[in-house]
Amino acid sequence: MVETIQTKRDIRKLKLDELKEFFIQKGDKAFRAQQVYEWLWMKSAKNFDQMTNISLETREMLRQHFVINHIKVDTMQRSEDGTIKNAVTLHDGLVVESVLIPTEKRITACVSSQVGCSLACKFCATARLKRQRNLSPDEIYDQVAAIKEQAELFFGRPLTNIVFMGMGEPLLNYSNVTEAIEKITSQKGLNMASRRITVSTVGVAKMIRKMADDQVKFNLAVSLHSAINQTRSSIMPINDTNSLEELGEALVYWYQKTKSKVTYEYVVWKGINDTEEDARALLKFSKLVPSKVNLIEYNPIDDGDFQQAPEEVLNMYMDLLEKNGITTRIRKSRGKDIDAACGQLANKS
């Protein structure tokens, strides 16, 4: 029977040793596996035809046994500020979004880790999509490789940073996210520095502890938005099962194990968390471990339930935190005109 695409294995599921074993079984040299592996992970080959230092005969043999289930960037939108949003089609037809964010000093890839999301944060467009599945390590890696290509093509500059702040909760797809990061940071992969990668979570306490135990080298950001349990639970249901007390204990454990600062992502909304009491609660929480705070400009998601607090409220937060030794910055959102900013990814395209 002729193998169909459905029965062929994605070659990127094989470890290097398994690739070597395959070539030896086929009567070929083991070093051929190293060549193929480099094409897959250093050069981000999308198909076997790109493997130009491998004979046509060997490429045909690979085609007979394997596929490369590479993502496809189906549509690419460009913002007035240079931000690029990609609608990425996966091999099974599902779609996620990723974003290239250019600034003067850096180019950042914002990547997705799940198709949809299960956490129902009320201010986030992605939360309105049903979570359909986790992304594989290859699909996460492919988003980064695609943005790396775009950075060089459109800006003539290298990709410098990666943030897991796209669709989904990275810590609910932990093993695939960390495997993708291994490929991205490996010298046999994209060779990017771990310190340039940030994984953002809504605060899954158990998994923050696991990250600490695993001694991960990337940065941790927490999407916080309130340091008062009642307020946080009203906008982020995760807080009902992972309270601020549990989250705080997990973050103390994280810092004890890794000595790595935590970044808090925090949006200030009118009538929700815009009082001095809210700001003082954040200050107290921020002192649990060495940390910094990003006060993020809110990006509306159509229904108007959430509105950005006025500038004087942001300044009140900023003054209080800075006076008490917490590094704080107000982060302006980019790509709002193409729904590419934080909380806006919803597969509208």
Summarize the structure in words.
This protein is of the alpha/beta class and 349 residues long. The chain folds into two domains: 59 residues, DNA polymerase, domain 1 (Orthogonal Bundle); 267 residues, Aldolase class I (TIM Barrel). The protein has eleven helices and 14 strands. A ten-stranded mixed sheet has the order 3-4-5-6-9-10-11-12-13-14, with helices on one face. Strands 1-2 form a two-stranded parallel ribbon. Strands 7-8 form a two-stranded antiparallel ribbon. A hairpin with a 4-residue loop joins β5 and β6. The longest helix has 19 residues. The two termini are 40 Å apart. The N terminus is likely disordered.
Spell out the blueprint of helices and strands.
Elements: E1 9-10, H1 16-25, H2 31-41, H3 56-65, E2 66-67, E3 72-78, E4 84-89, E5 95-102, E6 107-110, E7 114-115, E8 133-134, H4 137-155, E9 161-164, H5 174-185, E10 197-201, H6 205-213, E11 219-223, H7 229-235, H8 238-241, H9 244-258, E12 262-267, H10 276-286, E13 291-296, H11 311-323, E14 327-331
Parallel strand pairs: 1-2, 6-9, 9-10, 10-11, 11-12, 12-13, 13-14
Antiparallel strand pairs: 3-4, 4-5, 5-6, 7-8
Helix pairs in contact: 1-2, 4-5, 6-9, 10-11
